[in-house]
Amino acid sequence: MKFLCLHGAASNSDAPELCSPAKLTDSAPLMYELARTETVEFHFLNSPHEVPPYGALGSSHPGPFFCFYGDSYPDIGALLAKVQDQSASDSSPEERCRTLNLEHVTSFTPQLAPKYVQEYAKTSDAGPFDGLLGFSEGASVAADVLLDQERTSERPFKCGVFFCGIPPYKPSSADMYLADECGEAIKIPTVHITGARDLANFAGSALKNLCSSENASAYEHSQGHEVPRAPAVTKRMATLIRKAMHA
Questions:
Q1: What is the mean pLDDT of the chain?
Q2: By 3-state DSSP, what share of the chain in percent is helix, strand and coil, each rounded to 5?
């Protein structure tokens, strides 16, 4: 089985959260654990918009840095303040997500990101791909691709894996697709990994709600906005992904 993997914002395909196959054994224990029992390949795609490093990111891993949704950043301070406010809210995940938008980001183009991924998946010599795996912004784009797949007769992707997920954005809009409007729109098997200390984990819950409750599996680890590497947690995540692969 082949997974097409999408990194988070202001990152790249060699970032620590989604490491390349060359670093499989020492830097990506989840992928090593899956490869231990499955015939599985991971292919990593850089997003199309190059951006400058954000904050200390440039010193933590080498660039260049990319985003799927545009070539600039939102006001990170203001966005994090909104996230922090909503993390303590009693509102539904969907209502909390509505407070977060990226309409003020220069060249915010949510409609182009899934097309970019779909075109790559169709034309890449590394394909065909059976599953999508995304982290943060990459999870949002992956969900958008799967949502679009539900509208067509072509179903190349058989499962989706989302780490620190965010619901997908509507075309030419800063509004998200949310379950209280769209229902369980993604029908294929999905896996949703969130962190208890991730202030934006309500966004991952909103993404899970957008997926078929019969085919969605979820796991919340004790860490933050990251892919954890503890052996016991890695085995638990791998178990859920194997279940989706063979559903």
A1: 83
A2: 35, 15, 45
Annotated active-site residue 72? The verdict is no
The DSSP annotation for 120-166 comes to HHHH-TT----EEEEETHHHHHHHHHHHHHTTSS-----EEEEES--
Is 222 annotated as catalytic?
A: no
User: In the annotation, is 136 catalytic?
Assistant: yes
Count Cβ atoms below 10 Å from residue 203 Cβ, excluding itself: 26
pLDDT digits 0-9 by tens, 106-151 = 566 777 888 999 999 999 999 899 999 999 889 999 999 999 999 8
Per-residue confidence at 240, pLDDT binned at 50, 70, 90? very high
Q: What span, in angstroms and rounded, lies between the C-alpha atoms of 142 and 148?
A: 10
- How many residues appear in the chain? 247
Instruction: Determine contact, residues 79/100, Cβ cutoff 8 Å.
Output: yes
- Using DSSP bridges, classify how beta strands 216-221 and 2-6 pair: parallel, antiparallel or unpaired: unpaired
**Letter for the amino acid at 50?**
E
Determine the Cα–Cα distance for residues 26 and 29; give it in Å rounded to an integer.
Answer: 7
Side-chain-side CA neighbours of 185 within 13 Å: the count stands at 23
Which of 47, 144, 198, 217 is the catalytic position?
Answer: 198
